Each structure stands twice: as C-alpha cells, then as structure tokens.
Amino acid sequence: MKKEIWQNIKKNQLNNKAYLTYLIFLIDIILICASWELSFKTVLFTIISKIFLVLSLVHLYLIMHEASHSAISSNKFINDLIGHICGWIVIMPYLARTHSHLLHHTWTGHPVRDPANKRMIEKFSVMTPKQAQKLEFIWRNWIPAIVLNDRIGLWKSPFNKSMFTSQSKSQTEIIFNYTYLFLYISLLCILYLNNQLIHFINWFLPAFLILAIIEELVNLPHHAETPLLKTQDKALPYWEQGIVTHSCKTIPVWSKFILLNFNLHTAHHFFPNAAWYDLPIIHEKIESTSPDDLTDRKYLNELKWSLINRKRSLLSIMGHYFDKIQTNSGVVSKQNSSF
C-alpha cells in the first residue's frame, strides 16, 4: 500500500463502539458461569456447557488481543484489567503477551526480532529426522503443538532478559506471572477442598485444548507462505506489511460473531490499533483504494486452508522454521519455502 493511501485511511475517524466489546466480555463471563452450573446436569446440558465454555474462551482470547492494542478503552486501567482477566482465564500472561505481540506487529516477518518467529525457530530449526517425523504426526493429527509452544514461550519470556529493553518492565511481567500462578494454585486448592477438582479438570481441560486448536486454525493462515525477512532487514512500516500477511475469507456468523473479524488480518496489520468492529470498514476502504494489497479475495477461509494443508508436509508450509534438520553427520535437509 502507498503511504499516502494509508495516511488518508488513518485520518478518517472511525465510529467508537466500545460498548460492543464490553457487552461481549460480560456475556462471556456469564456464559462461563452458566457452563459451570450446567456441567453438573444431564449429558445434554453437559454438551451445551462445553459449547458455552469454548465460545467464551475463544472470545476472551480475542478480547485480550484487543486489550494488547489498547483497543478496548482509552482508560489504561480498564483496558488492562479486562486484558488481565481474559489472560488469566485462557492461561496466557497478558503483559508478556502484549509485549510480544506489539513486537510482532513492529517486526512482522522478521526471523529474530518478531518474538513469535524467534520462539518457533529456536524450538524447531534443528531437528533429527525422527523428531521431524514426530512433528509431522502432530501436524496431521491436529495436535496444537505450535500454539502450546508459543504459550510456554510467553510464560518464560519475562525471565529471558535479552528480550526486554527495560529491566523494570521485565520485573513487572514476572510479578504478574507469579500472581497468575498464585491465583491458579488458590483456585485448585479451593476446588480440591470442595471435592470438585476432578470435575473442574474434566470441564475445563477439553475446552482449553479446543481453544488451542482454534487458535492454531485461525492464526496459521495469516502468515503462512509469505516472505520471511532477512536478519539484517529493517522493520516494515505498517503500510507495507501486506506483503507478509494474509487475510481469510469472511464466513457469515463465524467471522464476525465468533472470530470478531480476526480473519481480516491484513487490515489489522495495516492498522493494528483499530478495534475489531472497525476492521470491516477499513477492509472496504482498502479494497476500494488499494485492492492489490488484499489477498483474502483469492485466499481460502481458515477451515478450508487447514483441511487442505493438513494433508501437506508441515516442512513444506513452514520451511524456514525447519531448515536445519540435522543428524550426527550434519545437515541432511534444507527447506526453501517460508511461513
């Protein structure tokens, strides 16, 4: 996108509909409470309970994403409070996630300075052929190892001081990580003392794993098989990030009410601080002024992308993460495709 077009779109004030985010957040909290109550009833109600819980977890993950961009409220306390509540429920440290995610937007497509890329490359860049086979098994069977690896990386990242420019910021994130853990332990102790720990695990764990699968489902297509920058490259300005970002086609109900327009990922990278309800407006403006910067018109929706690509080798889709598969005698394979 040309800088002038980007600036022109950015200048136009968008409608503030923050009440929509507050409403969804409130409904999700109510649904979680209802899900817990229904989980003690008949099989039918238990199934409904699972649906409520998965829907709420997906929404809270996305609302936390909104909070990481300060897109919920101009009041930092309210914005971060909602972010922390969402992060605690979906087991993702909000401050560490925000720090990592904002770096992702600044350094999208960079192999080192984009923390998500860095975590992936460090984890998977050197594997034996046997490890590569295990990874392919995980990929083909929809086991969300990529998402879980990223989750673990976020919990560990505040302790990795090389990723932080501010020592005080790192300490704050460590404090909040420990606070989250304290609250988790407290909750588990209360459940144990009330003989509900096993029931809670059976209620929450399957829904959390489904959340992880959905996270992988909706995140992977956004940067799959786009160019990977070189280590020495500078950060791309927002108006050029279309070259390293894909969108997915909009599906009625699913895209707007479940994913909160998260599928419009190119528009999000062009304007990362825009709220979810403004992304369709931005998308339309880009489509009318700079249509070549949108790939979603010819790109698949998330489910079709996954159904097609689960049949492919993960190494062929995300080659730059796996381009140094090694044995005792050295490198045996180098993949040239990029994620």
Can you describe what's shown?
- A hairpin with a 2-residue loop joins β2 and β3.
- This protein is mainly α and 339 residues long.
- The model is unreliable at 324-339 (pLDDT under 50).
- α3 (43-68) crosses α4.
- A 3-stranded mixed sheet has the order 1-2-3.
- It contains 15 helices and 3 strands.
In short:
The chain is mainly α. The chain has helices at residues 3-11, 18-38, 43-68, 76-89, 94-106, 115-124, 129-140, 145-156, 167-193, 197-223, 254-258, 265-270, 279-289, 302-309, 314-317, and strands at residues 126-127, 324-327, 330-333.
Q: What's the mean pLDDT score?
A: 87
Helix percent band: 55-70%
- The stretches of 5 or more residues where confidence is low (pLDDT under 50) are 324-339
Percentage of residues in strands: under 5%
Could you state the order of secondary-structure elements as H and E? Answer: HHHHHHEHHHHHHHHHEE
Question: Radius of gyration in whole Å, from Cα?
Answer: 21 Å
What is the 3D shape?
globular
* Class of secondary structure makeup: mainly alpha
Question: In total, how many beta strands?
Answer: 3
How are the strands of the biggest sheet laid out side by side? Answer: 1-2-3
Any chance you could write out the topology, listing elements then pairs?
Blueprint (H helix, E strand, L loop, with lengths): L2 H9 L6 H21 L4 H26 L7 H14 L4 H13 L8 H10 L1 E2 L1 H12 L4 H12 L10 H27 L3 H27 L30 H5 L6 H6 L8 H11 L12 H8 L4 H4 L6 E4 L2 E4 L6
Parallel strand pairs: 1-2
Antiparallel strand pairs: 2-3
Helix pairs in contact: 2-3, 3-4, 3-5, 3-10, 6-8, 10-14
